[in-house]
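Quick start: what a row looks like.
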Amino acid sequence: MGLAKSSTTPGRLEQGVMDSIRRAELGDVGFLAHGTTVIINALTERKGATTALLTTKGFRDVLEIQRANRPDLYNLTYKKPTPFVPRRLRLEVTERMTYKGEVLTPLDEESVRTAIATAKRLGAEALAICFLHSYANDSHERRTAEIVREEWPEVAVTASHELTNEWREFDRTSTAVLDAYVKPIAAEYLHELGRLLNDAGIPDEASYAMQSNGGVSRFERAGRTPINLIESGPVGGVIGAAAIGQLLGEQNLITLDIGGTTAKASLVERGTVRLTSDYAIERTPVFAGYPVKVPVVDIVEIGAGGGSIAWLDPAGALKVGPQSAGADPGPASYGWGGTEPTLTDANVIAGRINPHYFLGGEIELDVDRARESLKPIAEQLDVSVEEAALGVIRLPNANMIHLLKLVSVRRGRDPRDFAIVAFGGGGSMHATALARELQVPRVIVPPAPGHFSAWGMLMSDLRHDLVQTRFARADVAEPGELTGVWRELEERLCGTFAADGVDAGTLSFARSADMRYAGQEHTVNVPIPGGELGEAERAEIARRFHDLHEQLYTFRQSSPIEFVNFRLTGLGAVPKPQLQAIASNGGAATALKATRDVDFDELGRHESRIYERALLGAGDELKGPAVIEEPAASTVVFPGQRLRVDGLGNLIVETEA
């Protein structure tokens, strides 16, 4: 297995991908999965195309009105998110559907052409189309998209029904707008990357983009609906963690991915990755963000990573992040011109990072520069540099504990029933401390944790998701009628996979439904049995709903149950790499390479054994205090913790009772 990393190449991101491929010396490539942050970066940096919106007459201000469920309810100075489309580019079209999908006002095609001409005149580069109730009947949207492509073939166009058939007018409009906004950038990037891959001998049919739903799709299809790549980068690690859990018999996992800027967590329960369609970019506890109504692996993120900068607020309180030193100039210890102290610098001072073995020795870290960067904070707090470094480590750890609680305790799950899978450059360095605090029994550090998200992408299947909003009382609707909805969705997905050249014999489908008690607003997603539904299945669905509702909200009631959204996931199996078993090396002593003074916070400083991970063999065991080093990560084993190496090379760290 070839492993390589290369620096990001701003301005030509595809070149960084090719640099990594060349450095890895892969040989013949039959399957390439690519995760990218191009989409999310274009949105957060506001570097997309000038976008116009065509919408139902009377509804041009949906993007401005938004919804009433703002996060900071009692903030009298709250400001709504500024729409991506200014009002002058929100153009009305005469048409109207009812919520049942019946035509109330026929589509006025002349008003469509007038709106197109106005968008052209005002300098639009992309068009989003979202009509009222098009989730129930998309015929007006389809015809409008046809007219746009006839009148203005070069413009990027997105119709909301191409992305989702789920209700919520503002959410659907926002999703269509964001997709159109990034479509030109995504198309250009994927086209150029595909060309470079072709030149390197990797054909189009072997190139896939990682989607936010945890599956992959061909570059060409991904470019048509780029909003599905919005969390393309971090999703691979969650899929990889679920695959590792299956191999180890660990069905319940919390993933922890710590990089240079952020820490991300997700939940895998009973072997299933959690998805959500209640996703929003830039959402915070005080800001509503911008909703994206497509399936996204449910990942929660905070601004805490190796490059997070430590600083003092005006009151003299220590803060860490969310600002990051990034890769350029990077932490002070890099010696590349950075002067502000970061979490990486603090870990160097605490002895948890070997300054001579960072990235396998590619970067020699300067301990003196790290100490110098922390001196101003230490002096203002009237503590030693070592104590200041511990403070810089404790704050992100406290935020990460809150992060892990957000994906577990806040969702009715006890973290003590889960294992943590730690990856990313900093995951294994911090996870063992978090496990001690939360009493999580095990931390699993997979092989090559710094490259783990890339490996996780290779464990993904071809995947497409469909949703259809349709209201039905669970106790009244005919089982055959319910089955029919999913059969329609299956037919549509079969057509999608066939267009990608996928053999129907390799497909599998998974049903679910968003359900609620009659009169409720919020829903619970319930797994639905496959095949024909009958009375027995109706009773089983009701039982599952009651159990899940009680788990999430601590109560159940005898009210009637409603179906709201019918969901279907289609998977097309692809060949996957196998983790290779590792040999026994005759004990951990063969991997011992040094000892070093390491600070373990409240447990004090300890002379700790330092091991080379590549030399550890299957069955090796050791006790903390210790640090296991590898080129792209370090695993810190606290006093009172034990580590063993399993037959696949995973490090399993357990805290003694």
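That is the whole record. The two ends are 37 Å apart (CA to CA). The chain has a mean pLDDT of 93.
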